Amino acid sequence: MSLNELYELNDGHQLPKIGLGTFQIRGYQGVDQILTAIQNGYRLLDTSTNYDSEGAVGEAIRRSGIPRSQFYVTTKLPGKYHHFDDALKIIEESLLRLGLDYLDLYLIHWPLPKRDNYVEAWQALIEAQRRGLVRSIGVSNFEKEHLDKIISATGITPAVNQNEIHPYWPQESLVATNQEYGIVTEAWSPLGRGSSELTEPLIVKLAEKYDKNAGQIILRWHIQRGILPVAKATTPQHQRRNLDIFDFTLTETEVSQISDLERKDGRVDDQDPKEYEEFV
């Protein structure tokens, strides 16, 4: 991956155009897998307090021998810590677990609108940024109504909104909203997490056309939509293939055709941000 392949954030910072997801990558094995990814070229490492992988991420960074300044580390706020003081303390706790002095990006993991504390949580992230604990702040799984509420309450627009996006759930309206607001869209489960998207005839046909695999076609679809995919990959081969997506370009028609694979029940776990209660 070219080091020039970066997205510009609305706060002046940058992020690589693809990241490594660390959901279910834990412990000493997780350290080895993340370290391998670093050696293969990953610099954006996405974790969460709820993933229990913050320690592994921090240890892999230390073992890599690569300066901290070259990494972009993201972690996320659990729902049970949406109150202001709790949020600030868990951000500090995440830094302690990671063994880092600052985070490059910190996200509210889910809005939890039934509890309706996400504005308070956003105010805490703004304060954490002011204190230098975090460089960029953003959200995850926020719909337009949630974005509008925090922006209206604080005047501060998130730098990033990380959402479930893959061919069965392309989220065209939400992606357009993020772009309108100057928010970079990240995609979690960008390959559909075990769904049949990787065997869709259209995807397979395009893979043959471009001499790529199905996952690379889908990741390229994200990139051409201006989306930053955060993809889990544990083997060296998988990690390298996921990065090898910058030497070809899908046509506009092909991008649209992939988006047309949308399904009404396309979510991988039926997690509706307006209803989902996260791990609380």
From TrEMBL:
Residues 17-261 form the NADP-dependent oxidoreductase domain. Keywords: NADP, Oxidoreductase. The keyword Disulfide bond does not apply. The record marks 76 as: Lowers pKa of active site Tyr. Substrate binds at residue 109. The keyword Oxidoreductase applies. PROSITE patterns: ALDOKETO_REDUCTASE_1, ALDOKETO_REDUCTASE_2. The active site is at 51 (proton donor). It is an enzyme of class 1 (oxidoreductase). One of its GO terms (molecular function) is 2,5-didehydrogluconate reductase activity. Gene3D superfamilies: NADP-dependent oxidoreductase domain. Its EC number is 1.1.1.274. Belongs to the aldo/keto reductase family. This is 2,5-diketo-D-gluconic acid reductase B. It comes from Leuconostoc suionicum.
